[in-house]
Design brief:
34% strand, globular, Photosynthesis system II assembly factor Ycf48/Hcf136-like domain-containing protein, 3% helix, 29 strands, PSII_CF48-like_dom, five-stranded antiparallel beta sheet, 436 residues
Length: 436
């Protein structure tokens, strides 16, 4: 898989004891190290101290799935049978356990043509759930987790053929309906982030998860979390703050000096269209395998890049008259870029650049939303209203899978765990599994 990232969809879309002396009020500057507890926070300068070392351990599992007993994944919308207090345990350190009772909402497809390379997987979720990310445990290749809106967390132990709902640790008085947006594993250790700001950590392949406390001073909401080593992770917020931890999330260090808006408003981006007096967030962010990021402004009028070691985000003008929808990394290290209305562009060469050329692709007028690589030469593109396209020459030419047109859902992302295991995720609980 060439890159990991997040596109913030409609309706959605750390760390020091003192701020740098050069920062001014209104510039969200990122401090350099985190305090040990919330009481150690000093003044808020933007990307400042936000995590405490207080961690709550996870008690025993809430329940056991019987295979025939599953429930809706949401209790808030469309008349779900369970109240939120029944569906999500009040304990702050719950183990993940299957829910019992309730009813199964499979999101079964209506009559639709058979896909050549994919199969649609029914899921125990409400219609209206948007799937956002998935990951598998490297040490257990058939064991994975799937995330989405309405606090959706599903688990598979057969490579993605079947999925069961799981719970997340929540506080007794929390009324949030979390949007779980990013998950990453390295070995048996995994991380989950979401919005409103939430961070979960496991060291036992997801058998249990514990909550990592986050301060309300955190600039923005976590949108990407990446497991980078034992007890180590990297976290990015939608305001462009980047933090790293090497002790299981007890302490965090800022990897960048300031948030995106602070960088753009210092005057260094006067030649960047739409960057002056910027107060928005990143609409999409993608991370390459070597830790380089590319992000698109929420309005799509420019993009930014960051490489490990750089002090700030580097802004870039878009090369198309149309606004950018999403960007990510090719298998060869170059960039792909999709614009609103369906255009697809590829950078010339590898790394961060502003030199792009347009690819020949027909999307029926629906926007392309994501591109994923199965191999260096084989790529898939997904988009609105069931748009699913395949390239066998690295993106030079594309063929549409017309059978996907009948799915009738927006296909937001395509992810390949390896050459044999891939998934397309979309709205209304749509999940496609790659057959090869």
């Amino acid at each position: 898989m060439a890159s990991a990232g997040l596109m913030l969809l409609p309706s959605s879309t750390a760390v020091v004891n003192s701020a740098p002396a050069s920062a001014t009020l209104g510039q969200k500057s990122a401090p350099s190290s985190v305090g040990a507890s919330l009481s150690s926070f000093n003044g808020f300068r933007g990307a400042s101290d936000f995590c405490s070392c207080a961690r709550s351990k996870a008690p025993a599992a809430v329940g056991v799935s019987t295979g025939s007993q599953t429930v809706r994944a949401s209790s808030e919308e469309k008349g779900s049978g369970l109240g939120r207090r029944e569906f999500f345990s009040a304990a702050t350190g719950l183990s993940l356990g299957a829910f019992v009772g309730g009813s199964l909402v499979t999101g079964e497809a209506k009559a639709e043509a058979e896909l050549a390379d994919w199969e649609r997987i029914p899921l125990p979720v409400d219609r209206g759930v948007v799937l956002l990310d998935l990951a598998f445990v490297p040490d257990e290749p058939d064991h994975g987790f799937l995330l989405g809106t309405r606090q959706t967390l599903l688990e598979t132990k057969d490579g993605g053929k079947t999925w069961l709902p799981r719970s997340i640790p929540t506080g007794p008085d929390e009324e949030f309906n979390y949007r779980l947006n990013s998950i990453s594993f390295l070995g048996k250790e995994g991380w989950i982030s979401g919005k409103p700001a939430i961070l979960l950590h496991t060291t036992n392949s997801g058998e249990s998860w514990e909550r990592v406390p986050l301060s309300p001073r955190l600039p923005g909401n976590p949108v990407i979390v990446k497991a980078t080593g034992e007890d180590s992770a990297e976290m990015v917020t939608d305001e462009g703050a980047i933090y790293v931890s090497s002790n299981g999330g007890k302490n965090w260090r800022a990897a960048i000096e300031e948030t995106l808006s602070a960088t753009l408003n210092r005057g260094s981006s006067s030649q960047i269209s739409g960057a002056s007096y910027y107060t928005g967030t990143l609409g999409s962010i993608n991370r390459s395998s070597d830790g380089t990021y590319v992000g698109v402004s929420s309005r799509g009028n420019f993009y930014v890049t960051w490489e490990p070691g750089q002090r700030n985000w580097q802004p870039h003008n878009r090369t198309s008259a149309r606004r950018i929808q999403n960007m990510g990394w090719r298998a060869d290290g170059g960039l792909w870029l999709v614009v609103r209305g369906g255009g697809l562009y590829f950078s010339k060469g590898s790394g961060a650049t502003e030199d792009f050329e347009e690819a020949k692709i027909t999307s029926r007028g629906f926007g392309i939303l994501d591109v994923g690589y199965r191999t260096k030469d084989e790529a898939w593109a997904t988009g609105g209203s069931g748009t699913l396209l395949r390239s066998l020459d690295g993106g030079k030419s594309w063929v549409r899978d017309k059978a996907a047109d009948s799915i009738g859902a927006n296909l937001y992302s395509v992810k390949f765990v390896d050459e044999k295991k891939g998934f397309v995720i979309g709205n209304d609980g749509v999940l496609l599994r790659y057959l090869g």
